[in-house]
Amino acid sequence: MQMNDMVIISTDDHVCEPPNLFDNQLSGELLASAPKNKTDKNGNNYWEYQGHMRGLIGLNAVVGRPFEEYGMEPSSFSQLRKGCYDVHARIDDMDVNGIAASMCFGNSIAFDGQTFHKAPDKKLALRHMQAYNDWHYEEWCMAYPGRFIPIGVLPTWDIDATVAEIHRLAKKGFRTVAMNENPTVQGLPSIHNDYWAPFFKAINDTDMTIALHIGSGNPAPHASMESPIEAWISTMPLSVAQGLADWTQLKALLDYPAMRIAISEGSIGWVPYLMERADFSNWRHKVWTHSRLQNVKPSEIIKRHFLHCFLHDPYGLRNLQEIGEDMVAYEVDYPHSDALWPDAPEHLWESAKHLTDLQIDKITHLNAIRFFRFDDMFKHYKREALTVGALRAKAKAKGVDTTPKSSGGLRPVEDLRPVTSGDIIAMSRKTADERMAAE
Questions:
Q1: Is the distance from CB of 217 to CB of 183 less than 8 angstroms?
Q2: I want to staple 316 with a disulfide (CB 3.0 to 4.6 A). Which of 205, 234, 265, 269 is the partner?
Q3: What CATH number is attached to the domain comprising 320?
């Protein structure tokens, strides 16, 4: 196999929800009360819903910009690459990056449904969340059948509504739903509470996959406001280790041995150590802690239930056998700041070329197809049409431009000292205050 022969599925990307998101899904009062994209007096775009405002979240949409302009910009749609929010441009950006298919989490509105969770009128929030799911499936994923893996969000503040939505989504064609890895941050019971029993049963009954995205429930801590932001960014993938350790102890995994859980954007290099440490802890402490895992090791639970998604992890791929070649999948994370675009295949190939052809096929697409029940891709396309080489040839013929584009905008600091955690937090607060003042 050569680099251009790879077929790559990205199991974690994001869509910057477009301003017209609800226009074709709702009408009348439901449309009027839906989340609205607005512009403040400084030209910054933000989303407003039931009194809560949320910006475009700079580093989450910097793809295609010069590295020196990364920061808490862009702050308006005019500064975004069109592929961030337009599905047709997204396909072009996937083609030029050699990506056959993509699973797209939300960005501002529905990262894990938090916009709807924060809304005081939950009856209205439920209807708008359903409209978001319908938009995601009908207008984003089905615009190019076989190129996107649908992923839904859930009204977990109401367990009966959650179960109903899982079944509705399953009938619609979804096979994956996102969930907060630590719902206690949303004011809900922990995953070990009986509150979630109907949820796990519905997941099992509909053969759904659960996706847990880093940063939703257990954000990466930063040492101090004076710590360089690079230190914070370095530890972000590791933050999901806390969630994985917690979910490994979940009783539902013993009740439903076929349950599938994807750890999105967590990477893989740290996973062997966590399994080793969890087994050691279980050995030393399971008797006095009354652990549920008396006859099975935590590492066996992890290897059976959890798919680990990585975007750049040469160390992890050198130790693939320790994690399990059937439980690893690739991701790009477009359009976030870590996204390898438009040269993801080059970086992936350099890290994976020591693997066998079958192992490469597994981590690039076969594991994703199996885990997310995504057999649509090869129903709509022949394999040879989805290789890196074929997709890039199509993009070249179309003239897709990948030249970095400058938009200027906000800067965290003007001097040459390291940008700190405090700088980024202060900038976020300043932008939020400006939006409030504009209102």
A1: yes
A2: 269
A3: 3.20.20.140
Instruction: Among 105-114, 195-204, 360-369, name the one with the lowest average pLDDT.
Output: 105-114
Residue 213 has pLDDT above 70, yes or no: yes
* Mean pLDDT of the chain, nearest integer: 92
Q: Which residue(s) pair with 209 in the sheet?
A: 176, 260
Q: Give the mean pLDDT of 18-41.
A: 96
What domain range is 233 assigned to? 3-438
pLDDT of residue 295: 96
* Domain total of the chain: 1
Tokens 């064609």 correspond to what residue? 173
Query: What's the distance, CA 284 to chain centroid?
Result: 35
Three-state DSSP at 345 gives helix
Of 116, 97, 136, 144, give the one whose Cα is nearest residue 34. Answer: 116
Q: Where are the alpha helices (DSSP H) in 114-196?
A: 114-117, 122-135, 159-172
Q: Is the pLDDT of residue 411 over 80?
A: no
